[in-house]
Amino acid sequence: MHQMLVLTPQPDDYLRLITEAALPDLQVVASADVADGLARGGHSDILLGDPTRVKAALPHLPQLVWTQLTWAGVEPMLDPSLRRDYVLTNIRGVFGPLMSEFVFGYLLLFERQVLARLESQRAHRWDTTLPGTLRGRTLGLVGVGSIGTHLAGTARHFGMRVHGYTRSSRACADVDQYFHGEDRTAFARGVDYLVITVPNTSETRALVDAEMIGALPPHAVVINVGRGRTVDEAALAEALQAQRLGGAVLDVFSEEPLPSTSPFWTTPNTFITGHTSAPSFPRDIVGVFADNYRRFHAGHPLRHRVDFERGY
Amino acid sequence: MHQMLVLTPQPDDYLRLITEAALPDLQVVASADVADGLARGGHSDILLGDPTRVKAALPHLPQLVWTQLTWAGVEPMLDPSLRRDYVLTNIRGVFGPLMSEFVFGYLLLFERQVLARLESQRAHRWDTTLPGTLRGRTLGLVGVGSIGTHLAGTARHFGMRVHGYTRSSRACADVDQYFHGEDRTAFARGVDYLVITVPNTSETRALVDAEMIGALPPHAVVINVGRGRTVDEAALAEALQAQRLGGAVLDVFSEEPLPSTSPFWTTPNTFITGHTSAPSFPRDIVGVFADNYRRFHAGHPLRHRVDFERGY
């Protein structure tokens, strides 16, 4: 018999969905409160939760063998002061479709001039300004992992060209042209929309720097759904303020919540979305967990295992 | 040798693109002005233009054999006082992708609560409200022609269910469930987003009436990219005003430009887009025309021929 502790803001949803999955030899305690969860489930060998709660619970679970995060991002778990004597798995695969909804919702907001039309409407003015179209535009993906691959598929559906900037991978067939290493500015020069999807690692920190931002065309829009530290935020804010860019859609920041003093609240054509681009819906997360639990129970390797050294 | 008169707001673009197409035995006169065009090209056997200009020029072209419209909508040509002694073709096939951008841009605006997030941003508030998702939602198509078929494909890409209301057709494989005839309210009850794509004919007039609007779920959003007369506009305005609907995106109206006295300017959660959902980009139109001209020149049947009796 395995014992699992679930620590999330939606303990009832998780308990119901895990019960419905009818997993063998599994007892579950679920709570939104770490202390309450530990009091009732401190002897658990499996932990499922969001990074903040998992980090708080980690030192108090002597029998821990496996932790399944409910997020894609794993940075809090990489803190060198934390234990690493357990298997850590994260969520991959389910965020691609949600990220696609987010990214293309905002791309179409720009192309269709939705806000300008709304201004006309408020003035009771029949606005026949011709819209733009995504067809023929170029989407530039910084990182082509599972999320980037899904975005590339959606871009192709809308008739866009897709450029990808990766360390070395050329695995995604929906990418028309790949760039690597020193090709950063050549990559930036050719894109209409730049979408950052890479995780936060030592290699990606400030990858989108002043030089890369400066190479973007003046109509380009920067969309960050990866991690704030991948971008030189000061350089981006300056470019937006000077209107050297078409705009930005920023879901993530180096400091969250975004401080009230941040320039991004008021830079032109900027959309701030509070780290909501691809939420962890319990049904999706339990689907990934249930598949992994069956592997765990059968003694097979788990999916989406995080390499503590590599950082993802 | 054939002689063609082109009457559009973009005569230079059309002239350049038609010249580039290098069509055999074709001389072209292009103008934005009907009188000017007739003065120079009154002996033309081919006419290409938008419905308003075409209607004005029709009585003055004694040698007319074929008219290619630059629009999908053909109503002005159906006026019983106008001649019908020529072949009329319209544009089909190129508007589906543009309509898809329009419809899904607004669907995502609703699901992602874009305007509410923008309000938070204006108050410098970090808004972590969870978004909705299109996945699992039901798109209801009133009419599943070439545009509806394209919308169904995009809906499937985003993981939506698709219901279709048609006279009898069941041709589109991306439609999960079909409804016909008296099933109008059963159809309406099951949809989250209702998209109207049918042409304006005697059969579609006020098809979306008070009964059908009343059967929609209270969160449903109505999107009209067909023709204004397909909807009972008074009933729709009343439902929106009473917030018995989630909202509306209205590109077309029975009277255009929309009169300044229309209630739609101020009904809640309503977006007015000035008949811009799928503009006729000259490159697309010339592509359709060039294909048809080669058929005409070879004596083959033309594509997208309009049946004056049927009305589309």
Detail the poorly predicted runs of chain A: none
Oligomeric state, counting identical vs distinct chains: homodimer
Which second-level CATH architecture of the largest domain in chain A applies? 3-Layer(aba) Sandwich
CATH class of the largest domain in chain A: Alpha Beta
Average pLDDT rating of chain A: 96
Give the overall shape of chain A, derived from the CA principal axes: elongated
Structural features:
alpha/beta; 5-stranded parallel sheet; 2 domains; 12 strands; 10 helices; Rossmann fold; homodimer; 312 residues; 32% helix
Task: List the SSEs and their pairings.
2 copies of one chain form a homodimer.
Chain A: E1 2-7, H1 11-21, E2 26-31, H2 34-41, E3 46-49, H3 51-57, E4 66-69, E5 87-89, H4 95-111, H5 114-122, E6 138-142, H6 146-157, E7 161-165, E8 177-179, H7 184-189, E9 193-196, H8 210-215, E10 221-224, H9 233-241, E11 247-250, E12 270-272, H10 282-297
Parallel strand pairs in A: 1-2, 1-3, 3-4, 4-5, 6-7, 6-9, 7-8, 9-10, 10-11, 11-12
Helix pairs in contact in A: 1-10, 4-6
